[in-house]
Protein: MarR family transcriptional regulator
Amino acid sequence: MESNKPIGWYLKEADKRITAFLEDEFSDLSISRYQWMIMQRIATAGSIDTWQYFQELKAHITVQQYGEIIQSMTERGWISVSGEDQRVFTAAGEEAYQQIGQLQQERNARMLHGISEEEYKLMLSVLNRIIENMSQ
Structure:
């Protein structure tokens, strides 16, 4: 692959390929990348504020797509509403998260094959600085 394209091209291409990889990998589990992201956030924080979390994803999906994702996770019995628009795991959701998480660790290792922990941390550091620079 050439290395003389603008950084935006690499960022978009990496995101496109990560999404395609994860969608393909998750298809046998009937979940999407964004469902997994929601599950990860709930697991980390204990809950998500439905509208507030959408603000983090809105550059990537529409409000309609987000609503459909939330609805599908609710219909599967994985999440429920707790309090004012807070989404939390049900027992089934927690179990699904644990099972999918094990598979995701294996798949993540394949995606990051050949990238050291130091390289990964450096990449995140550089991307964070770019984001911060563009936020000023």
Residues 7-27 form the longest helix (21 residues).
